[in-house]
TrEMBL record:
Protein name, UniProt field: Lipoprotein
Domain of life: Bacteria
UniProt entry keywords in alphabetical sequence: Signal
Signal peptide: 1-20
Length: 126
């Protein structure tokens, strides 16, 4: 009886692992009309081409701190923005390999919004 419980438990656990959890990757999407770019870090990294990327960085110097976000989609369209806004810099700091990142910019290529979403459904870059 005990061995039957162990076998049953093993089957349930292994079958649950095969289909467990929502998984979604978003490759790089850029809208020049709405001035937006977005992707999951894993989706950009794991895309089937060698063109897509999404990157954000912070640069600190003795005179100040600034940040940039850049993206390129599968068609080779590249857009980016820069910021010195403390709130947007905090958003950049929170990005990790399981983040969904979206950024918006104005006509001067200044970041107006940076959205960082964390979730179990966004896979890490492999």
């Amino acid at each position: 009886m005990q061995s039957m419980r162990i076998v049953t438990l093993a089957v349930l656990l292994s079958s649950g692992l095969a289909a467990a959890g929502v998984k979604t990757d978003h490759q790089v999407d850029i809208s020049t009309t709405y001035r937006t770019a977005s992707a999951t870090m894993g989706g950009a990294r794991n895309s089937s081409d060698s063109i897509q990327y999404l990157t954000c960085q912070i640069v600190a110097t003795a005179s100040g701190i600034s940040g940039t976000c850049d993206a390129q989609n599968a068609q080779g369209v590249q857009r980016g923005c820069r910021t010195t806004n403390q709130y947007l810099l905090e958003a950049i700091k929170s990005i990790n390999d399981t983040s969904l990142v979206a950024f918006l910019w104005n006509e001067n290529e200044e970041c107006t919004q940076i959205i960082v979403r964390q979730g179990s459904m966004y896979g890490p870059k492999l």
